[in-house]
Prior knowledge:
By secondary structure, the protein is an all-alpha fold. It is built from five helices and no strands. The chain has one domain (2-79).
Amino acid sequence: MRLLTWGPLGVRNALEAQNEYDCPIGPLMQALHDGATINKLADLPLHELEDHFGVSANPIRERALAADLNSCQWWLDATGGLG
């Protein structure tokens, strides 16, 4: 849901696009598990946007997503605060 809220492609309300941001989920979860820094987390959606979707990334927006993902209570609860 956080990736849909992030929604840089502007398709968050389109039912047919509900899985549009599924491709970065695995890499982001692995990076969180590995204790990646916020900068490393921000690089993942940044490169996904530019390399996979072919659109310009917004480093400030991608860093805000990374900080949000890194500070989520669900992540802290699931991992005991790793990452």
